[in-house]
Amino acid sequence: TEPALIRNFCIIAHIDHGKSTLADRMLQLTGVVEQRQMRAQYLDRMDIERERGITIKSQAVRMPWASDGTPHVLNMIDTPGHVDFTYEVSRSLAACEGCILLVDAAQGIEAQTLANLYLAMENDLTIIPVLNKIDLPAAQPDKFAAELAHLIGCDPDDVLRVSAKTGDGVPELLDEVIRQVPAPVGDADAPARAMIFDSVYDAYRGVVTYVKVVDGRLGRRERIQMMSTGATHELLEIGVNSPEMTPSDGIAVGEVGYLITGVKDVRQSKVGDTVTWQRNGATEPLGGYKDPRPMVFSGLYPIDGSDYPALRDALEKLQLNDAALVYEPETSVALGFGFRVGFLGLLHLEVIRERLEREFGLDLIATAPNVVYQVTMEDGSEHTVTNPSEFPVGKIAEVREPVVRATLIAPTEFIGAIMELCQARRGAMQGMDYLSEERVELRYTLPLAEIVFDFFDALKSKTRGYASLDYEPTGEQAAALVKVDILLHGDKVDAFSAIVHKDKAYAYGVKMAGKLRELIPRQQFEVPIQAAIGSRVIARETVRAIRKDVLSKCYGGDISRKRKLLEKQKEGKKRMKMVGRVEVPQEAFIAALSSD
Ligand code: GDP
Ligand code: MG
């Protein structure tokens, strides 16, 4: 197809504003998916996505649509909606020339709407504002059309109104996409350059790579090169999704499609990378490539130690499909053998953990998530800390932590509550704007560490669920951070070491020591539980001693009964962990680690 007849667009929306439903309607209207095949949220393929109603992996689908009698090709690129995947969202947007900004006509603009809008603006996309769910009795289209128009600087009459549910207004919207979204431009005669905006592992076909061709053409059987690594491959198959994979001879300027080279690992086909020909290829990659960088780390341990090899195999499998997932083996006094795993954010962590438990049948315990710290020592040496128990000892000059730019939207009555929460979490206010008389946008920079720990829940409960939050990483800042260790009878329990702000160290120490006192059974001797910063103890609890002698109950008597008792005690000990001289049931550690 010639570029003038192509339109590449995406839909950006806050969760539940109807993106998947609108995509479904478009597939149906353009005849790409027949009525009888249609099931709700056709494009959301992963089970977890369907259940949680979130889109994790983006896809692209090609649809024919004739406007004024001229047949066009529409490429709809689905973007992952969640903050953890900002980079992938930005690459999907970079593959488009325009976007539909979809807003629920009963809800108005939310934080995710804004965060995605900012990304769309950074990518110079044409923005088509659309109100959805106009069929709802609670819809207030006039009010929210004004809000949207004010936000993007257009006339309220230019805000389209649709119902993705009934299909009302959707054909007109497709016409508008053709009218307003610019056709892609590129140099058809230049060496091929295609941008990877998604790559997905398929058990049968290996990695399926989604690209947008910017210059030139990629053809079947050609040899290609990944510009970030120089790795070369043969194009075994190339084609478009419509909506199932449909092979073709090749794809050219402005077109969106998929490539199959037989590689088995998505890390060989990285989002943001540029694909070119192996011979006479382009010399300059397209801009915007970044290596995926894990932002949050957690230790994952099998509850049953014999599941360790199964956990390793499962992580290996998941990594084939997830270039952002990193892990390395780790051992813990309290938890045994496990892995330190890096994630893009909390949702990513949750999704991986759930897949490990559900798809691989593993029972896992996760240590409290932590961010990545940069530590400069007084002697000038630098350390990257992904595990609090590896925080360097000695003279520290500076500790830096990652910070995010957060956008919060809520009814004005909650301004006070939100400011209080952000302040308690070491936030710095950057600005505040009224979207309308009743709703306000607050902008903060916050340490990522303060957000990964139950911030979202706290926000929801302080605002009765009315606030929405989105954030993106903006760099790092120096902060007064210290490592707090928890000691049992003088020995460190690694899984409980945490890096916290010095003003919060005492509260953390008291809380953990208190929790463990409840959970650790009495021993033959007194066990002090201490929280300490270096050698300075900041909190202390004590588990009093008891004398427990199983044999004393059956003096003299039956020898076989004695043996049975001893064996029973041995059984019980299997699930015990030794911390120095102290015997602790693993359940106690697990209970102490799970959030309250
Ligand atoms: P997404 O999270 O943006 O993909 O939103 P979904 O497409 O999953 O829609 C969220 C909910 O809103 C679902 O229950 C949909 O059935 C419902 N919904 C979507 N569009 C409409 C609409 O136009 N009218 C009504 N009444 N409900 C809608
Ligand atoms: Mg969806």
Automatic annotation (TrEMBL):
First-tier enzyme category under EC? hydrolase
Q: Which SMART domains match?
A: EFG_C
Q: Which PROSITE patterns match?
A: G_TR_1 (PS00301), G_TR_2 (PS51722)
| HAMAP family named among the record's database cross-references | LepA
Question: Where is the protein found, in the record's own terms?
Answer: Cell membrane
Principal location listed in the UniProt entry: membrane
State the membrane topology.
Peripheral membrane protein
* InterPro entries tied to this protein: EF-4, EFG_III/V, EFG_V-like, G_TR_CS, LepA_C_sf, LepA_CTD, LepA_IV, P-loop_NTPase
Keywords per UniProt? Cell membrane, Elongation factor, GTP-binding, Hydrolase, Membrane, Nucleotide-binding, Protein biosynthesis
Task performed by this protein: Required for accurate and efficient protein synthesis under certain stress conditions. May act as a fidelity factor of the translation reaction, by catalyzing a one-codon backward translocation of tRNAs on improperly translocated ribosomes. Back-translocation proceeds from a post-translocation (POST) complex to a pre-translocation (PRE) complex, thus giving elongation factor G a second chance to translocate the tRNAs correctly. Binds to ribosomes in a GTP-dependent manner.
The organism named in the record is Streptomyces johnsoniae
Protein family membership: Belongs to the TRAFAC class translation factor GTPase superfamily. Classic translation factor GTPase family. LepA subfamily.
Offer an example of a GO molecular function term for this protein.
translation elongation factor activity
Give every Tr-type G domain span.
4-185
Q: Give the enzyme's EC designation.
A: 3.6.5.n1
User: What protein am I looking at?
Assistant: Elongation factor 4
Domain of life, per the record? Bacteria
* Regions crossing the membrane: none
* Binding residues for GTP: D16, H17, G18, K19, S20, T21, N132, K133, I134, D135
Q: Which reaction does it catalyse?
A: GTP + H2O = GDP + phosphate + H(+)
Entry-linked PANTHER family: TRANSLATION FACTOR GUF1 HOMOLOG, CHLOROPLASTIC (PTHR43512:SF4), TRANSLATION FACTOR GUF1-RELATED (PTHR43512)
Q: Which residues form the signal peptide?
A: none
